[in-house]
Amino acid sequence: MAFDWFKRKTQNITTSTEDKKDVPKGLWHQTMTGKVIEHEELKANNYVSPEDGFHVRIGSREFFSILFDENKFTELDANVESVDMLNFKDTKSYTDRLKEVKAKTKLIDSIRNAVGTVNGEKMVISCMDFSFIGGSLGSVMGEKIRRAVDYCIANKLPYMIICQSGGARMQEATYSLMQLAKVQSKLAQLSEAGLLYIAYLCDPTFGGITASFAMTADIIMAEPGALIGFAGPRVIRETIGKDLPEGFQTSEFLQEKGFVDFIVKRTEIKDKVSKTVRLLVHA
């Protein structure tokens, strides 16, 4: 009968409710090929699926633990956070949106600055968090990058930005777009000081980020398979009325066209960054 499983007691198939255990959320991860791996195994492999090499999207917390020696670093400018300067409202007010995303992510904006050592090489790293309004560029991101560059110049340190963003933050309108010029002018000062700037492009890196400082680094690295571009492929296809090349806007495609210097797996990024610093800073 369809309901025979209710009679398990008569078949000595019983499970005490006291012995039942809930499976914690996030304990397992499903790969692109459909296979399942344990979260701790994924974490031990720098959040790269050992089955198919897929790079699971991570944030600043995970990137800092991967890059900084023994996960020891000092966060810079941790109290700089977004405010609603324009009283902007779309489906909800920007103020409410900020409150919600801050509570959900435990972050105060879409980028964090930190200083520490990477295989013994001291440097400053700014890492974007895509979970905070799509890693969007607003006035706080521009200001925090400015402060990070000033810190590098004052302390003669190399600089790295980990990019993962959908572009400018629409809720800040022109204030957001002004950050592009602000960041580029500070990076020009970094270059004039003879200090190294590395960009690591993750999935996705789009919009004004790609149109500016993501593509003006001394060394541009990218994760395998990352989508990188200005406008999305659907918009471009509809604009030009043609099919796009296979693999268009992937990091591999951009490396072939000369826009990216290296494709670097996340499992190799720490060694690649430290070797680059030693070669270009200490040589």
TrEMBL record:
Belongs to the AccD/PCCB family. Its EC number is 2.1.3.15. Residues 26-283 form the CoA carboxyltransferase N-terminal domain. Acetyl-CoA carboxylase is a heterohexamer composed of biotin carboxyl carrier protein (AccB), biotin carboxylase (AccC) and two subunits each of ACCase subunit alpha (AccA) and ACCase subunit beta (AccD). This is Acetyl-coenzyme A carboxylase carboxyl transferase subunit beta. NCBIfam families: accD. GO terms for molecular function: acetyl-CoA carboxylase activity; ATP binding; carboxyl- or carbamoyltransferase activity. Its main location: cytoplasm. The keyword Cell wall biogenesis/degradation does not apply. GO terms for biological process: fatty acid biosynthetic process; malonyl-CoA biosynthetic process. PROSITE patterns: COA_CT_NTER. It comes from the Bacteria.
